[in-house]
Design a protein that fits this description.
The chain is of the alpha+beta class and 162 residues long. It is built from 4 helices and 8 strands. Strand 2 and strand 3 form a beta hairpin.
């Protein structure tokens, strides 16, 4: 079900030992995504998709895998209102490497593109800063794309006039 609102937020948490959690808040409901880092670099994929969106691509998608299953996240700029995007999160049960046959919509919504970018940036920045704390970084520092984030931060600073 598509929700036309800006009552959207999310929290991206880098957990120890190769896992992350993303809580997506849409109009008072919470959707929880579990993300493994075993099959790739989900933060890199997320940042890359956001960069493509900022540099003019109208549609991006990426996968966040769980064990088994995962989610496909699609972000599409609205053709009639380029400052807004349609976001759809769909789940699947297939294991990594298997053909994904059935996508089931978890949630979809419209959001102002700059609001989406702001939320994403602040969640990534939070993780970047927490990784400077030795006790936090102990089981996590090798699974964050530091160089990609620094590149992203330069681009988003221009986009959001930070």
């Amino acid at each position: 079900m598509q929700v036309p609102t800006d009552d959207i937020d999310f929290m991206l948490t880098l957990n120890p030992h190769g896992w992350s959690t993303c809580l997506v808040f849409v109009q008072g409901k919470v959707y929880e995504l579990y993300i493994t880092h075993v099959f790739g670099d989900p933060y890199y994929d997320f940042i890359h998709a956001l960069e493509l969106l900022m540099t003019g691509q109208n549609s991006v998608s990426f996968f966040w895998y769980d064990e088994p299953g995962g989610n496909q996240i699609e972000i599409v700029r609205l053709s009639s209102e380029k400052h807004k995007a349609f976001v759809r999160i769909q789940g699947f049960s297939e294991s990594f490497g298997d053909e994904i046959k059935n996508l089931e919509e978890l949630v979809s919504f419209e959001i102002n593109v700059n609001a989406l970018l702001t939320i994403a940036y602040l969640q990534l920045r939070k993780t970047f800063l927490l990784l400077k704390v030795r006790s936090f970084a102990k089981e996590r520092d090798s699974i964050f794309p530091f160089a990609k984030f620094v590149e992203f931060e330069k681009l988003i600073s221009k986009q959001l006039n930070l």
